[in-house]
């Protein structure tokens, strides 16, 4: 091993890796940041369509709940860096933020380049050594302790490594699962990996006639016995071969594990802001009394776009030239039911190449949540998407990357001792 030695080596230059390197360098650590791509922050540049939704204004408790049953794992990380302190951090390095919709936090420029440039400037100011085109091929250990890394060009000594290589989403931006391989080589368990936050493909194709319409506050649930509690609400967009929109991006993380198991996943969509069958029936009966309405499509106009109303009527064989009260009783029942719960069958997706995040990762059971360090390898830390913890869209995952990276960068191993964190 050559004589290049550092207090800390950070592998990966996404949001988590860069803030980890900055925190450690501010604490007077000699830091090396390794990135396998020609430039740092490639995936961060694409975040939020390039607008970079940094976080949101949820309080810490509700923020963690949004990540599901494992959300409490991030308690210490959020205590160190929540959305308020993240705003302060960026203000300190020259980035002004704002909250245009009262919830999502963006840089005022609405450009991820602003964030990357500010982080890079701070890294340089703190004398962090940045090496791009440097792919780590092995984490070197001795007696279950970190001693260095092996790269495609040379080796480096260190007693601390932060692994911030991301997941499998958007592989063209560098997320190819390198961190999973590096971790498994030294004994860490990787949970099942699933693509998440992406459009979904359906068996049905009638929705291709409705692509001009966005459905606000659509309610979606999985129609399987083991998934009755899984629900989502948000804007829905139809595509030529499936579904997309914010609600689908969010809910994909729940659907893809079932898709791997069953090949097809039935879902039900309520496109009338959650109105139940009784409310829909009462509405249609009331609309039938309006003399200016001559058919069911006109009656549905206030709750559904015309294109969707026509397609739903076709699906159940309803005559679109009749009013609701003139339809056969069986057809009326079918229409009410299909409006309340429109069925779709999810049959696939475009894989990790279109996935913004990865569901699954390094097992939480092998990571100390108060420090982000490995429970089995002294001096090894994890942060960001590589960990088995993911949230919905809306700044959740980027905040988690920053928070976990900041906590990892504290290097509590050196301050309180490895054994103290494993009592």
The CATH topology assignment of the largest domain is FAD/NAD(P)-binding domain
Radius of gyration of CA atoms, rounded to a whole number: 25 Å
Compute the average pLDDT: 93
Shape: elongated
CATH class of the largest domain: Alpha Beta
Instruction: Give the CATH architecture of the largest domain.
Output: 3-Layer(bba) Sandwich
Q: Give, in spatial order, the strands making up the sheet with the most strands.
A: 13-16-15-14-17-18
Any low-confidence stretches, pLDDT <50, length ≥5? 415-423
Distance between the termini: 34 Å
Number of strands: 22
Structural class: alpha+beta
* Count of discrete domains: 2
Largest sheet: 6 strands, antiparallel, barrel
DSSP helical segment count: 14
Q: What would you give as the CATH superfamily of the largest domain?
A: FAD/NAD(P)-binding domain
- What percent strand? 15-25%
Which bin fits the share of residues in helices? 25-40%
- Assembly state (oligomeric): single chain
Which helices and strands appear, and what pairs or packs with what?
Blueprint (H helix, E strand, L loop, with lengths): L4 E2 L1 E4 L3 H12 L4 E4 L7 H4 L9 E2 L3 H6 L9 H6 L2 H10 L4 E2 L5 E4 L4 H14 L3 E3 L4 E7 L2 E7 L3 E4 L2 E3 L14 H8 L8 E3 L3 E3 L11 E9 L8 E8 L3 E3 L1 H17 L2 E6 L6 H12 L7 H5 L5 H11 L12 H12 L1 E7 L8 E3 L7 E2 L4 E2 L5 E3 L13 H14 L2 H5 L7
Helix pairs in contact: 1-6, 1-13, 9-12
